[in-house]
Specification:
Number of domains: 1
Shape: globular
Helix content: 25-40%
Distance between the termini: 15 Å
Strand order of the largest sheet: 1-2
Strand content: 5-15%
CATH class: Alpha Beta
Structural class: alpha+beta
């Protein structure tokens, strides 16, 4: 979500990439709530940190929740920024509540991006 929101809001100013330690398919709830926001990520794929090994970045931004697994460290950044958001995929609730929770986290991330960047 953060990658797509940052691209949507400030893609003219930043070259944005996203990766994780355990890439998997893009969560269908994420696809839905981003589509509700007018952003189509249905063709996106999860990428591994290894895909960007050796690349230098002006900013490395982490948005992991910090609970359970530690946030990954990515060498090569000039400035590191972290904000903790709960992982909406980690909650076990019914479908309607899950959509609401994914939407809430999407809105929190968007608000933080607007305040920070």
């Amino acid at each position: 979500m953060a990658e797509s929101l940052l691209k949507e809001l400030y893609g003219d100013y930043y070259e944005v990439y996203s990766a994780g330690t355990n890439p998997d398919s893009v969560n269908p709830y994420t696809v839905k709530v981003m589509a509700d926001r007018g952003i189509d990520i249905s063709m996106n794929r999860s990428k591994s940190l290894n895909e960007f090994k050796g690349k230098e970045f002006d900013y490395v931004v982490t948005v992991c929740d910090g609970e359970g697994d530690a946030c990954p460290f990515f060498p090569g950044g000039k400035i590191y920024i972290h904000k903790s958001f709960q992982d909406p995929a980690s909650v076990n609730i019914d479908e309607d509540e899950k959509i609401k929770f994914f939407t809430q986290i999407r809105n929190e991330i968007e608000g933080w991006i607007k305040e920070t960047f």
